[in-house]
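Exercise 4. Each item below gives a protein and its sequence. For each, produce the structure-token representation.

Item: Copper acquisition factor BIM1-like domain-containing protein (Stachybotrys chartarum).
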Amino acid sequence: MVLSVLLAVGAFTLVQAHWILNVPPTLGFDDVYEGIAPCGNIDPSLRNGTITRYPIAGHPIGFLNTHSHALFEFSVATLDDLDHWEPVGGTLSTHGAGEFCIDRFPLPRRYVGKNAVLQIIELGGDPLYQCAAIRVTKGRPIRVPDNCVNGTGVHGEWV
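Answer:
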């Protein structure tokens, strides 16, 4: 009985230690391998799923975070140079577990016309990685979709 309770608590803790990228759509999610760079053990060159049109003026980024406090870092690599990840946008400090949405996250102009990968690293303990396949375009920011929201008591600030 005690062993089964300990195993259940351990499994609950493991599940609680992760986050899920919702907007733009993640390349894939595997909670067992989310700690493997650069994309949680998902091949960053994958283009068989959704490729998000990402205007340099900004695109929403939304995720579910299970940590009460975490730091997030953002990087971009072009599809033809996946060994070079460029940090973009600074570091985001979030407070409160739940849904979080950045309504507009711009990218540098030099990426216009490029097929790229947006990498997001959560630093709420061990680093956890997720990525999205993007095609960087000119144009106005994308409207915030209904699934990009801020949960009650969840907020963030750039540090």
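Check: Residues 2-16 form the longest helix (15 residues).
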